Amino acid sequence: MIDFGNFYQLIAQGPLASWLEVLPAQLAAWQRENLHGHFRNWTKAVDNLPQLTPQHLDLQHSVTADSDELSDRQRQGIEKLLRALMPWRKGPYSLYGTVIDTEWRSDWKWDRVLPHISPLTDRTVLDVGCGSGYHMWRMIGAGANLVVGIDPTQLFLCQFEAVRKLLGNDRRAHLLPVGIEQLPELKAFDTVFSMGVLYHRRSPLDHLYQLKNQLVSGGELVLETLVIEGDEHDVLVPGERYAQMRNVWFIPSAAALARWLEKCGFVDVRIVDFSRTTTEEQRRTDWMTTESLADFLDPGDNSKTLEGYPAPLRAVLVARKP
Ligand SMILES: C[S@@+](CC[C@H](N)C(=O)[O-])C[C@H]1O[C@@H](n2cnc3c(N)ncnc32)[C@H](O)[C@@H]1O
């Protein structure tokens, strides 16, 4: 059901064409080898969703689609199929009356990022670690010409394809289930986003180089990640877990991160936002019913994680490839 042929055709003639030297083989291997036990059920849910052309579509202020012509029964059918793709972490989405109240208010992150970046109008954009693709749709809403998201998590690909179908099979955004480390040096994107990914990378400076290698000369990197308070010498290297996550390797201060970016050859490095993650922004909902931030903080002192580290603080940095 998930057919990448459209994407191959789309990029065949343009600056992303060199990707075709590796991508079809990578995705064929992925389809052969790695499918999650529930993948078939997820794709069945996507297949069973109707392909709708929304009469009302908003990607600028939210991700909302609706149509006056749908019956209550059709609306209930859509909600049921979307629930088959739980847990929903990144959103929210409002699709034909179903409001997917996701674990994260990803719209709040977008509101913190958008005022500080170069206008996305007509840009070709890469979103590394895009999750269900919520920000990709907002990037389209902000005028991007083409948005490519990469994320190896298979449920997120199915959630993205479900949303895409309900948005009228919109082909301005594409999600590919590959990791950043699998990308060749494309040097083809005007803006590259890496949001919520750096602290999951074992080698954060290599991650910054990998991001730089995807940008055109003069292109912009938008980096959002966990940070600690401190100066350019301060970096937290957590033990086995940070806020119960096992795969957190390095949490630098924003000043240290700015220095890393400069060491990797970025220029015009700006720290544009700090925000403490609250239990209003990340929480358990009807669409993500397991543990969330409130369960990962010290119950006696919410300024600390359960492990005694500083509670999640996030920064947004913007930099340019010369
Ligand atoms: C914390 S989420 C951030 C999602 C979204 N960018 C946001 O800011 O809300 C991190 C995402 O990175 C993805 N990820 C993990 N390893 C990755 C890799 N090697 N390359 C690209 N994405 C990866 C995960 O599947 C997950 O969706």
Mean pLDDT: 96
Residues in β-strands, percent: 15-25%
Stated plainly, the CATH topology is called: Rossmann fold
Name the hetero compounds present.
Answer: S-adenosylmethionine
Q: How many helices does DSSP assign?
A: 10
Rg value = 19 Å
What oligomeric arrangement do these chains adopt? single chain
Shape: globular
What is the CATH superfamily classification?
Vaccinia Virus protein VP39
Distance between the termini: 41 Å
Query: Are there runs of 5+ residues with pLDDT below 50, and where?
Result: none
GO molecular function: methyltransferase activity; transferase activity, transferring alkyl or aryl (other than methyl) groups
Subunit structure: Homotetramer.
Pfam family, one: Methyltransf_9
Binding site for carboxy-S-adenosyl-L-methionine: 90, 104, 109, 129, 151-153, 180-181, 195, 199, 314
Overview of this structure, please?
The chain has 322 residues and is α/β, with parallel strands linked by helices. The radius of gyration is 19 Å and the shape is globular. The chain has one domain (36-321): Rossmann fold (3-Layer(aba) Sandwich). Helix 3 runs parallel beside helix 7 (154-166). The termini are far apart. The chain has helices spanning 5-11, 23-33, 39-48, 72-83, 106-113, 134-141, 154-166, 204-212, 254-263, 293-296; strands spanning 56-58, 64-66, 90-91, 93-95, 98-100, 104-105, 124-128, 146-150, 173-176, 189-195, 215-227, 235-236, 251-252, 267-276, 297-298, 301-305, 313-320. The structure holds S-adenosylmethionine. S-adenosylmethionine binds at residues 90, 104, 106, 109, 128-131, 150-153, 156, 179-181, 195-197, 200. Homotetramer.
